[in-house]
């Protein structure tokens, strides 16, 4: 079975975690957290890092740290995981959805300025599938309108923009270390910044708004502390950070392997002439290749959901990244509506995510592409046969089409016999 994504853990990772578990003093609030944070700073080149329990928490803290509140607007791309905009709602702000570039699926920078008004406080940009955005242009918009840029780099750790690592480009960057990401801590996330004031605020809010954490109280031999903000329990444990420390050492090799796999995927799609029906995302800037997305060129010929079901039946557990956020019921109930970002909606109906992870190899991709090729050939053949019923028997055509899209299997022989039967019946009636 091929999952769309999967973590990679080796003996070094296991030993790293075991060493923490053997430690009689710390499982949380201990030295591994700060070590992990320092390593993130060293890797990305940023000044400050704060490790937290998820990227969602990181996004929430990033919005809180810049003071997002009631009536503040934040521009966010229409296609991402919902956390990219939910974090704005957590603070009482309003997400303003911007359409995407259909080739990269990153935010369409040309459309951002039309959405900016006196209530706009920040822009959240997502490095979709791992490809970085055009930060030179984004930083120009930031300066022109005096805005904050939060980079949602859940997909892009390990990527660079013009020689600078992600995490050292914008005001704030948030990372995810979920198991399907390029490196993992199990669950976890982090925020990086070069702004000390923002860092101190984030660190305060990460742990209940406490002025002194456990270690600081121990150092000063004092039990006294104050709570000066409504903070949260967004801490991460030493166990998870020890895994992160070990994984971070291998990140560059993880990214390089993903790049090689994507190159081979593209080669196989062309070799099998599947490029007549499918196209990968285009890469304008560097990518860490978190996920591998293909777009169906003609959804009338190849229905995305049917392709999804047939691949799953072949134990290729593909996924779809993502539905436009504002189409979820939560957002519809807030007044958002279909048609808001037409390109995002069109692209959503065409995309499917094929398996991509470190332990995948070229032979695996050969198997996946061969199965994909056979499935597409079958879909096209069956679709063409069913299409012939449209004039002969429109009612039957409707039933067959619905059953086919729902995943029902039809043999070509059965459909041809049924066509002959219906044709003969019509000839006799005439």
Shape: globular
Uncertain stretches of 5 or more adjacent residues = none
Beta-strand segment tally: 14
Distance N to C terminus: 53 Å
Strands ordered across the widest β-sheet? 2-10-9-6-5-3-4
Query: Which architecture of the largest domain would the CATH scheme give at its second level?
Result: 3-Layer(aba) Sandwich
Please describe the biggest sheet, giving its number of strands, its sense, and whether it closes into a barrel. Answer: 7 strands, mixed
**For this structure, what is the CATH class of the largest domain?**
Alpha Beta
Q: How many structurally independent domains? A: 2
Q: What is the helical fraction, as a range of percent?
A: 40-55%
Helix/sheet category = alpha/beta
**Radius of gyration (Å):** 25 Å
Q: What is the CATH topology classification name of the largest domain? A: Aspartate Aminotransferase, domain 2
| CATH level 4 superfamily of the largest domain | Type I PLP-dependent aspartate aminotransferase-like (Major domain)
Which band does the percent of strand residues land in? 5-15%
Q: Roughly what is the average pLDDT, rounded to an integer?
A: 94
Number of helical stretches of at least 4 residues: 16
What order do the helices and strands follow? Answer: EHHEHEHEEHEEEEEHHHHEEHEHHEHHHH
């Amino acid at each position: 079975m091929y999952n769309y994504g999967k973590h990679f853990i080796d003996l070094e990772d296991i030993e790293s975690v075991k060493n923490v578990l053997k430690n009689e003093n710390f499982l949380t609030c201990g030295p591994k957290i700060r070590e992990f944070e320092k390593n993130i700073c060293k890797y990305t080149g940023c000044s400050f890092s704060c490790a937290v329990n998820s990227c969602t928490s990181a996004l929430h803290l990033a919005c809180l740290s810049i003071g997002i509140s009631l009536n503040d607007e934040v521009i966010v791309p229409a296609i991402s995981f919902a956390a990219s905009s939910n974090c704005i709602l957590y603070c009482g702000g309003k997400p303003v959805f911007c359409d995407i570039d259909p080739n990269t699926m990153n935010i369409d920078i040309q459309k951002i300025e039309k959405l900016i008004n006196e209530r706009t406080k920040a822009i959240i940009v997502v490095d979709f599938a791992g490809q970085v955005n055009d930060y030179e242009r984004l930083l120009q918009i930031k300066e022109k309108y005096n805005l904050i840029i939060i980079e949602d780099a859940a997909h892009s750790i390990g990527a660079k923009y013009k020689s600078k690592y992600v995490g050292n480009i914008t005001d704030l960057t948030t990372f995810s270390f979920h198991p399907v990401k390029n490196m993992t801590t199990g669950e976890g996330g982090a925020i990086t910044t070069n702004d000390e004031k923002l860092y101190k605020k984030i660190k305060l809010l990460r742990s209940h708004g406490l002025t002194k954490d456990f270690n600081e109280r121990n150092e000063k031999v004092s039990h006294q502390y104050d709570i000066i903000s409504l903070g949260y329990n967004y801490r991460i444990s030493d166990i998870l950070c020890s895994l992160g420390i070990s994984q971070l050492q291998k990140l560059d090799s993880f990214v390089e392997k993903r790049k090689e796999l994507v190159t081979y995927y593209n080669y196989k799609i062309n070799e099998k002439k599947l490029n007549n029906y499918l196209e990968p995302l285009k890469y304008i800037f560097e990518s860490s290749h978190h996920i591998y997305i293909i777009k169906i060129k003609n959804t009338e010929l190849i229905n995305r959901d049917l392709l999804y079901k047939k691949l799953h039946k072949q134990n290729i557990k593909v996924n779809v990244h993502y539905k436009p956020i504002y189409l979820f019921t939560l957002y519809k109930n807030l007044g958002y509506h279909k048609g808001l970002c037409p390109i995002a909606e069109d692209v959503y109906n065409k995309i499917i995510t094929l398996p991509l992870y470190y332990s995948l190899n070229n032979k695996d991709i050969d198997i996946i592409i061969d199965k994909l090729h056979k499935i597409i050939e079958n879909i096209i053949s069956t679709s063409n046969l069913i299409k012939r019923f449209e004039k002969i028997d429109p009612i039957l055509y409707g039933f067959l089409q619905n059953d086919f899209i729902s995943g029902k299997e039809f043999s070509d022989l059965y459909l041809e016999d049924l066509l002959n039967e219906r044709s003969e019946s019509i000839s006799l009636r005439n």
